[in-house]
């Protein structure tokens, strides 16, 4: 029994020693592998650090000779609103970068493009403009009394002007966008003071024989807004002063002074001159109507002629009670018809003396030849 126990113990000890040796060898190999991998990672890290430093140095050198600008990512039309997806940041050489180029994309988002812009075009501050905040008294108003340009389209910008018979011409509304257009009816977005100014201009156009007309802008997104200089009627100005909806009251004193100048200029034009101008335009209209239509008696004129004919027949019957046997003496239908004389058209060209007289009447003095 003792021999068996000794052999068992020897085997157990041998197994433990073998396992310990295997564990030591495995641990040694694992430690070597870990150290090898660590060295490899360290080398890779050093390589990346070197590359990163080189990239940073290259970027610094590029930034030293380049500028950051904002460019478009797609084509934009005049009047388009810039969105976030329409722009991006790019770096170009300082020599090729515009002096007023925008560098912050947030400064362009929401602004309106003035001109057509292609893809990858650097944006400058002069290419865009910001829409003003909508005032609380802004309204959409339609007008049918304004003479519109023939080629006017929706979205165009116009100045509404008023021209007086004495030659004075004023700007009533400045750079107004045509929001909608239907025939001779046009819609503008105008504030309270502009509504009152247009009301005064319409009254002036009726009383003074003035003309309200619109003129289109050639390049609205590049041209500045004109300054309205029409002096509103004094009563209208008083209404503007008493109206709490009107925001711009600083120009009222200047408008009153300009209105006095206009009234003085209109007062120098006598009533006879105004009658001559109106009668001249009425005569031209009548001649045009006579040329386009045939001359025919109106129903009222026909009734009057029939009444006169019946009265003449009754008086003739009282004077000559005896029957008339002469066929030639019997009145016929042709004799009863009124004789209509043709209307001679007015001369298309006035004589030099008449032209000089009209010129002297309008301008109160002869023109220097």
Order of helix and strand elements from N to C terminus: HEEEEEEEEEHEHHHHHH
Helix content: 40-55%
Structural class: alpha+beta
Percent of residues in β-strands: 5-15%
**Main sheet properties:** 3 strands, antiparallel
Low-confidence stretches: 246-252, 291-302, 304-352, 358-369
Strand order of the largest sheet: 5-9-8
- Gyration radius, to the nearest Å? 48 Å
The number of helical elements comes to 8
Overall form: rod-shaped
Task: State the separation between the terminal residues, measured CA to CA.
Answer: 158 Å
Number of strands: 10
- Please, what is the average pLDDT? 73
Q: Can you describe this structure?
A:
The chain is 44% helix and 15% strand. The strands form four sheets. It has a three-stranded antiparallel beta sheet with strand order 5-9-8. Strands 7-6-10 form a three-stranded antiparallel beta sheet, with helices on one face. The model is unreliable at 246-252, 291-302, 304-352 and 358-369 (pLDDT under 50). The chain has helices at residues 2-65, 192-207, 234-242, 252-267, 271-292, 299-319, 333-336, 352-363, and strands spanning 66-72, 87-93, 112-113, 128-129, 139-143, 157-163, 169-177, 180-182, 185-190, 211-216. Among the domains are: 1-30; 66-129, Alpha-Beta Complex (Type Iii Antifreeze Protein Isoform Hplc 12); 139-267, no CATH class. The protein has 369 residues and is α+β, with helices and mostly antiparallel strands.
SSE topology sketch:
Elements: H1 2-65, E1 66-72, E2 87-93, E3 112-113, E4 128-129, E5 139-143, E6 157-163, E7 169-177, E8 180-182, E9 185-190, H2 192-207, E10 211-216, H3 234-242, H4 252-267, H5 271-292, H6 299-319, H7 333-336, H8 352-363
Antiparallel strand pairs: 1-2, 3-4, 5-9, 6-7, 6-10, 8-9
Helix pairs in contact: 2-3
